[in-house]
């Protein structure tokens, strides 16, 4: 019992609990304390795992849910993947999902619209300027014709 306490770090209550569990699984009495060594080692190992495992730590291969910070917006994701596409790095075929592709296309079309808007305004201004010039030329020509 001293080895279980000193070497394995089990308390007397835990030793009795582990012995009771073993007796429940194996109803025949053990041949001696050495027969309980493996059960005590397993109990110490379980206790060590419980002590080191935090409630938030994953127990399997699954990753924990992301809780820190907000999720990136669709625009931020589109910008991230657009950077990947525009770089010279390797881009796997399955790197961009349909959702991200749609967001990237939407973003690109919005930027094109923003670029077209000033050009359309300029076309309108040039058109009205041309109309003004034409009217003024007509006035000048009519005035010159009146002189002659």
Features:
rod-shaped, 2 domains, 66% helix, 148 residues, mainly alpha
Mean pLDDT: 76
Percent of sequence in beta strands: under 5%
Total number of helical segments? 5
Global structural class: mainly alpha
Shape: rod-shaped
Number of domains: 2
How many strands, what sense, and barrel or not for the largest sheet? none
**Rg, Cα atoms, Å:** 40 Å
Helix content: 55-70%
Low-confidence runs (pLDDT<50, min 5 residues)? none
Describe the fold and architecture.
- By secondary structure, the chain is mainly alpha-helical.
- It folds into two domains: 2-52, no CATH class; 74-147.
- Helix content is 66%, strand content 0%.
- It has five helices and no strands.
- It has helices spanning 2-6, 12-25, 37-52, 74-86, 98-147.
- α4 (74-86) packs across α5.
- The longest helix has 50 residues, at 98-147.
- The termini are far apart.
- The model has no long low-confidence stretch (mean pLDDT 76).
In short:
By secondary structure, the chain is mainly alpha-helical.
Helix/strand layout:
Elements: H1 2-6, H2 12-25, H3 37-52, H4 74-86, H5 98-147
